[in-house]
Amino acid sequence: MASASAAFADEISDAIDQARKSYQSGDFGNAKQSLDLASQLVAQKNAERFAALMPAALSGWKADDVETAAGGGYGLGGSSASRTYTNAKDEQVNLKITGDSALINQYAAIIANPMIAGMAGKIVLIGKERAIQDKNGDINMIVVNKYLITVDGSAPAAAKLGYAQAIDLAKLAKL
To answer: Does 119 score more than 90 pLDDT?
Structure first.
């Protein structure tokens, strides 16, 4: 993993260096393309870091493979990792960690104001972080104003809360 990470970092540095050279030579089109490539590579790296924080399946559950995405769509941007967990009753919990997205500021403003957050659902503490749990038991939480955690699915609210609590929020906060 360390050598793959180093190679990835080299690709990012190479794209940034190419952008600088293109910019200095007046080739703004290639400079932008190289910066866009570097940005996408950084987003992919962030998504991989989120993937490493996905908790293992809790007792009685099975975990699917982690899926990552980078770049987002509809102008929202973002890097994310998601995983689905299934129990013997075929109930599911979907867990997603997102960073670098315009949605984060919107959720952060809601969660920061207890009056508004209370209208969106029940305020719950997960570790030291405030989260909103809606009437379906779905959870939205902002970590250090940089990451959005979403937990939803067909499972009971207690299972969703269990998976939210299983995330290593201290490690996420240090990214």
So the answer is: no
